[in-house]
Specification:
The protein is of the alpha+beta class. The protein is built from 3 helices and 6 strands, in the order H-E-E-H-E-E-E-E-H. The mean pLDDT is 96.
Length: 156
């Protein structure tokens, strides 16, 4: 049983998605998503590992997305169960194949809603081997200024 109505969780996530659309349009930076997290939130990223606290999440969101400005992350669907929202999205590299299809790999986010328009955690799951294969296939190379993830991040 959830402590929060599903409509409240969905409304928060819709605002989160609106912010992501503004980010992809270049209106605000990725760090704007940190406002959707509690002060003590935990974000777990497949490459960067475990990030604890809203301020650290803000820094992570800014640093990890530098150089990926031509990538997008279209939302596909979401479901609410209790205080958790699970969403499927695509990690879409810039450019297209000769057949006009996208270079993209699916990703899943599991967010825990804490109330008052904020999430207490986000766990992102993504097949990094698939992303690496897409980078190679598309001839994508890291632009200057790209920040690599830590060598040995804390995973859980």
């Amino acid at each position: 049983m959830s402590a929060h109505p599903p409509e409240e969780i969905r409304a928060c996530y819709e605002r989160y998605l609106d912010t992501r659309r503004r980010i992809e349009a270049g209106e605000v930076g990725w760090d704007a998503l940190a406002d959707f997290f509690t002060e003590d939130a935990v974000f777990i990223d497949p490459a960067w590992g475990r990030i604890e606290g809203r301020d650290a999440i803000r820094r992570f969101l800014h640093e990890s997305m530098v150089g990926l400005e031509d990538w997008s992350f279209p939302h596909q669907w979401s479901v609410v169960e209790g205080d958790r929202l699970v969403a499927l999205w695509l990690n879409r590299l810039g450019g297209r194949r000769a057949d006009n299809s996208f270079y993209e790999a699916p990703g899943v986010s599991i967010l825990t809603y804490a109330g008052e328009g904020r999430f207490s955690s986000e766990l992102d799951l993504l097949n990094m081997v698939h992303v690496a294969e897409l980078m190679k296939e598309s001839n994508w190379s890291p632009p200057p200024g790209l920040n690599p993830p830590p060598r040995n991040p804390r995973r859980w």
